[in-house]
Write a structure and sequence with these properties.
about 300 residues, about 20% strand, four-stranded antiparallel sheet, alpha/beta, seven-stranded mixed sheet
Length: about 300
């Protein structure tokens, strides 16, 4: 597969510093090509660099293995993902309802619409953003949702009490610009929920370049807590809390074991054990889980 490297970051989006080489990571999902990660010399923020630009990145999502854009249930990996997703949807709703039992919700990167469909059935007014045509059409057909391709296609006057990005921010080319646009769409005091992989977790240390949540080149940014808190503060959001995401480490470890050559059953067993080990480290220390959920408010 041709690698259309038409975008290279020269300055860190967090602090403006220069980048230095860090790690080479393989795309196991689509191209099988190797991509480079670089870290900022000033603050340590990590990015995939160079990377395909917005006009070309879509080709790296065109795979049956990219299951967040499908409802496939063939094989252990897909069945596990769908089960975890159902459990996660309910957990997300419980958390959101603590702050807003009703209201208007924007889900950026809504995929096939399961989360928004669940909220809509419980009385919320919902709006989705999903750049994938296939996933967007499924969300509309399966759940009768309002979904547009990007944030600039929303009516200018629309604002939201809740904005969610579930494993989406790491896919976005211009993180600062996106957070700025979300700030403009949020009502005063609106709740912002962002879930991202955390490269300070124990499973990153264990798997190294084979950590599945690097997911190059689809993941463009590789966050730590300090990175995201600084970006949010710069764009007018106050972080009011973080939450561990206990389901993520077993699933990421299962994928990482598959990339190492383990079979379906072996990767399931080893992934569960190593994911549990990562979660135990997070529970016993200050290290994060494989992914972290950030709760923020518009200030």
């Amino acid at each position: 597969m041709e690698q259309p490297y038409s975008e290279t970051l020269l300055a860190c989006p967090v602090c403006g510093g220069a980048f230095t080489p860090f790690l080479s990571v393989r795309d196991h999902t689509v191209s099988k090509a190797t991509f480079n990660l670089q870290t900022c010399e000033g603050c340590g923020f990590c990015v995939t660099n160079p990377r395909p630009d917005p006009a070309h990145i879509g080709a790296y999502y065109e795979s049956e293995n990219y299951i967040s854009h499908t409802n496939a249930t063939a094989g252990i990996q897909q069945l596990t993902y769908q089960l975890v997703r159902k459990l996660a949807v309910r957990s997300k709703h419980r958390l959101l309802a603590r702050y807003h039992s009703t209201g208007r919700v924007l889900d950026m990167g809504c995929g096939t619409g399961e989360f928004l469909g669940y909220l809509q059935g419980r009385g919320y007014q919902v709006q989705g953003i999903e750049p994938s045509t296939k996933a967007r059409e499924q969300a509309i057909a399966n759940h009768a949702l309002a979904v547009v391709a990007d944030i600039d296609k929303l009516p200018a006057e629309e604002q939201f009490q809740v904005i969610t990005l579930w494993h989406v921010l790491e896919h976005i080319h211009d993180v600062r610009d996106t957070l700025q646009k979300l700030h403009a769409r949020a009502t005063q005091g609106a709740l912002l929920l962002i879930a991202v992989p955390d490269r300070d977790s124990w499973d990153v240390q264990y798997y190294g370049a084979g950590w599945a949540a690097y997911d190059v080149p689809r993941h463009l940014s590789h966050f730590r807590c300090t990175d995201l808190k600084r970006l949010l503060a710069d764009q007018g959001f106050e972080v009011i809390g973080t939450r561990p995401m206990w389901f993520d480490a077993p699933y990421v470890s299962m994928l990482s074991e598959r990339y190492r050559g383990a079979g379906p059953f072996g990767s399931l067993v080893k992934g569960a054990l190593l994911g549990m080990a990562s979660n135990l480290v997070a529970a016993a220390t200050t290290r994060p889980t494989s992914s972290t959920l950030y709760l923020a408010r518009k200030t």
